Amino acid sequence: MPMLKIFVGTMYGGALDVAEQVKPLFEQAGYEVAIFDQPTLEDLTGSTTDLALFCVSTTGSGDYPGNFVPFVRAIDEQSPSLSGLRYGLIALGDSSYGDTFCGAGRSLDELLAGQGALRLGERLEVDAMETFMADDEALPWAEEWIETQQLKVA
Ligand SMILES: Cc1cc2nc3c(=O)[nH]c(=O)nc-3n(C[C@H](O)[C@H](O)[C@H](O)COP(=O)(O)O)c2cc1C
Questions:
Q1: Phi–psi pair at 119, nearest 5 degrees
Q2: Is the pLDDT confidence value at 154 over 80?
Q3: What is the Cα Rg of the chain in Å?
Q4: Which UniProt keywords apply (predicted)?
Q5: Nearest CA to ligand 1 atom 27
Q6: Does the C-beta of 10 come closer than 6 Å to ligand 1?
Q7: Total domain count for the chain?
Q8: Within-domain flag for 62
């Protein structure tokens, strides 16, 4: 069974909730799914990752949530080759923060691309000003992502 790893960056649990809600969709699509809520680079590169999904909210002024900082710092410092990594990205934010809207998700996307990883499809940006429960947007997005990117293996 291929392995889908979901990497979570969260302050208040919204992004973790998204990860837990979309997990069964990927299981139904034929994946073994692991959620990392204290992710390390080793979690990504230390064993096979057939597909990755990042669920990351933004704090401060466009900053990564604290639990996600070690992961990003390790990529910055070790500059691993991530070519061959295919991923999707769900960014949580709030447009009332203006220019830093979904800043962490956007920075992560750039960081991963810079290491050679390939994003499949468009990044989802969930705006807390418009959507109270991020799941309401994330679930249909994940269903469509699986469909349009032909990710179903079972
Ligand atoms: C102190 C604080 C700072 C925030 N800064 C930003 C920001 O710069 N950009 C943004 O898009 N959202 C910002 N947000 C909004 C959160 O990203 C948003 O509420 C998100 O849904 C939280 O997800 P979580 O429950 O996974 O932590 C901020 C929220 C708080 C409480």
A1: -80, 135
A2: no
A3: 14
A4: Electron transport, Flavoprotein, FMN, Transport
A5: 11
A6: yes
A7: 1
A8: yes
